[in-house]
Amino acid sequence: VSRRQFLTAALAPGLLGACSSLRIGTGELSSAEGALEEWITKQRTLSIQHLLNNTSPAVTFQRDVEARFIAPDRQEIVRSAASAPEARVQLEGNRIRQQIVPRAGSVTAAPPGTPSEPDYFFHWVRDSALVMHALATLCAAGSSAQIAVYDERIADFIRFSRTLQTSAAPEGLGEVRFNMDGTQDFLLWNRPQFDGPALRALALMHYQRIRGDHLPEAIHATLHEVVQADLDYIVLNSSRPGFDLWEELKGYDFHARAVQAAALHAGARRALSTGASERANAYEEASRQLQAAMQDHWLEEKGYYGFFAGRTVDLQNVEQTKPGENLDTAVLMAAVHGRMTDGRYSLLDDRILATAVRLEDFFAERYGLNRRRASNEGIVYGRYQGDTYYGGNPWVFITATVAEACYRLAELVARGASLPVTSRSQSFIERALRRAGAALPAGEGERGLSDSDLRRLPRGLILRGDDILRAMQRWSSNSGALPEQYDQESGAPASAANLSWSHAALLAATDARTAALANLNPNESPRSVLRTRL
Ligand code: NOJ
Ligand code: NOJ
Fold it and tell me: What is residue 530's predicted lDDT score, i.e. its pLDDT?
């Protein structure tokens, strides 16, 4: 039976609905893999649709909030917006009303929701960059008709981004988010945040690698301006403390630093290739300095990377401590977002893997959903211990990004990256090998894996990623909407009901899964294991 025939058989809905495991010949074949792939295919189609709906959305949005939510130092922005001809902002008593007509290239973090949801109808620099990264990846494998659609959205995004970069944003490129019509956000918010420019530069460099040869000259030129402005900004601002990606505390956070270091490193290579060697040197040097500063995040006695290093303060500049002993899934996400393929702060860093194990153990116990999960399901992940935002639940994009970490590491190892066993990486590697049916040989100190374990490891990692996706599959809805959070007891959607970043992360994880599978030795692929048993 060929693989195609197997998949077709396994995907027949009647068959899947009727039984939880198939018995074929002598081997027992779980239907879970076929069911997972079927869900992935369906969910990807819906996620792409949701993302396209959320870029340049065709809705007019009315915001109506109390005037006390205006940032004190942005009153002037409101006044001049309200007095402009054809003003779309009105101050009436203690309320402020805004009419927002989105511009081409804007990406909303979420579509307008019900009053119980947070108001996410803004173009966040961070969220929109991750959305564009996912759309860019789709260009690598799409049909020409599909690519034309993505190219257009990305071109609009590039132009919109340049407009924002050159706008009068009070925080400059550290501005966190904009109104969807490109005007300045004047609400009280935790600013500045510094991961946005790095994520945007990484997304656009990724797009350029995929589509560079096909882009019209004008788009190429604007892309270049956006990337260069982002990277130059990072060089000048990388030693300033900013609010973290959870928009809560101001300080030096691992995620912002890691994506900045990664963007500068990739930017240096890009600059070199165009002969801009002075810039390349400046970028590489700033990247090195960031990486050196990041040593401070390692907490030797705890055995993981602390999310913040040094002092953290809130908006009022009052000193605050990160709850949960500073253990945060954003550390692992940083290694994924940075896409460094070797060295410290990449997924091959044994300290990152030690942190991943701590996170897994913590969240496995933390949520009812995880404590009661099925035996073939991985866990869902939240932000950190002590999180209270909408109840401190597991988050969809965090969970998807942990799955992506498994797939990306699988691909790196399958392509020959070295991953020594150390006291720090040992538990992580042991769990992946166990998932592939093998045990980690006993030993002391730093050591290499045997050839056969090196071949099993990517398979175990892919299966661990699949376990996580299976948990997501369980809590997914037929509409394909992906919320920000899953209620930790019921699995029901919580906070924003349909978050762009959740869709982007689902696409990124499943693209990484495809790449990991494509790099497996045919004898080691999970699919071929199933096939040979038929
Ligand atoms: C606190 C939350 O933790 C953070 O993630 C969110 O962005 C802000 N509040 C604003 O809603
Ligand atoms: C809250 C998250 O903490 C932040 O990272 C994100 O940018 C916004 N929501 C919008 O999705």
Answer: 56
CA distance 355 to 345: 11
C-alpha 360/C-alpha 363 separation (Å) is 5
Q: How confident is the model at residue 516 (pLDDT cuts 50, 70, 90)?
A: very high
Ligand nearest to the CA of 69: 1
Six-digit token pair at 332? 């692992």
Supply 530's token pair: 């199933």
Return the structure tokens found at 489: 């007891």
Residue 216 corresponds to which tokens in the numbers above?
């019209």
User: Residues 6 or more apart from 258 whose CB is under 8 A from it?
Assistant: 294, 334, 335, 337, 338, 345
Distance 259 CA to ligand 1 centre (A): 20
> CA 525 to CA 460: how far, in whole Å?
10
CA distance 305 to 354: 8
pTM of the model: 0.93
SS (H, E, C) 479-525: CCCCCCEECCCCCCEECCCCCHHHHHHHHHHHHHHHHHHHCCCHHHC
Q: Are the C-beta atoms of 211 and 139 separated by less than 8 Å?
A: yes
Among 54, 106, 108, 120, the mutation site with the greatest number of ligand 2 atoms within 8 A of its Cβ is 120
pLDDT by residue (tens digit) across 83-109? 988 889 999 999 999 999 999 999 999
Pocket test for ligand 1, best of 246, 320, 328, 484 (most atoms within 8 A of CB): 246
Distance, CA of 175 to CA of 237 (rounded, Å): 13
